[in-house]
Amino acid sequence: TLGTQTDYRDGEAQTDPYTPEYVVRSGSLPELLTLATLTWGRGLPAGLAEVEMIERAREKHAWAATLPAKDDASQIAKGRKMIEAMERKEWAFREQEIKKLQDFQLEVLKKLLWRREENQKELNAKRLNDHWQNLQKAKEEKIKKIQHDCTLMLRKLIAKRKNLLGKLEKRDIIKEYTDFASQTYAPLSRIGFFPDNHSECYVVKNFYLDTFAGLCELEASLPDSVTQVKIKAPKPKSTTTKTGFVKRSARLEVMLAQVHQ
């Protein structure tokens, strides 16, 4: 129920599996010693290649047991043939292993080439897209320029059409002042007039309105009827005539008041 936490990870503290010391009995050759070259991470735990290597070692060991004795002269030719056959078999196996390695390297090279080709395709597509975007932008700018030039030419043609015979036309001042859309009231900025510039010239500047001394002087110059208000009480309206009759308008007012109540 009690846990501990160390300063090291289990992966850092993990060591290779323990291999105990051994002593080989004289006159014996254990088959397990054929795996002495394999270590943890380099052949162990055993895979398919290691199993095939073990099977080949067993076959070679069984083949070595079938070789004739070296002191028998009659069996020398037979032993030589068996050794040559085994060597040819070993060379064929080595060539097959080399071919497998070359095929594996070829597959890796194909994958690298395919990946490089894909990257090159992506780069080419990006370049084409950027080039297409630049061409589209240039096209839009050219279209805008053409439309602008077309508008200018249309204005020139309209101006020329107004004066077909090329005669000088006098300025019709009355017509310009009666038309509030004429150059007199609304001049165009393209002919060199900018109404927003120097707009302060239209501001009214008056000494009597902008300064306190001017206001006092203006107030002193005004008559008393302007500064002193005189209110006269209104005279009541007479509702009867000279002969004593009630006027018709008065009777109507009385009736309206009764209806309102």
UniProtKB/TrEMBL annotation:
It is found in: Cytoplasm, Cytoskeleton, Cilium axoneme. The keyword Cytoplasm applies. GO terms for cellular component: axoneme. The keyword Acyltransferase does not apply. Residues 4-156 form the CFAP91 domain. Its main location: cytoplasm. It holds the Pfam family CFAP91. Keywords: Cell projection, Cytoplasm, Cytoskeleton. It comes from the Eukaryota. Belongs to the CFAP91 family. PANTHER family: CILIA- AND FLAGELLA-ASSOCIATED PROTEIN 91. This is Cilia- and flagella-associated protein 91. It comes from Galbula dea. The gene is Maats1_0.
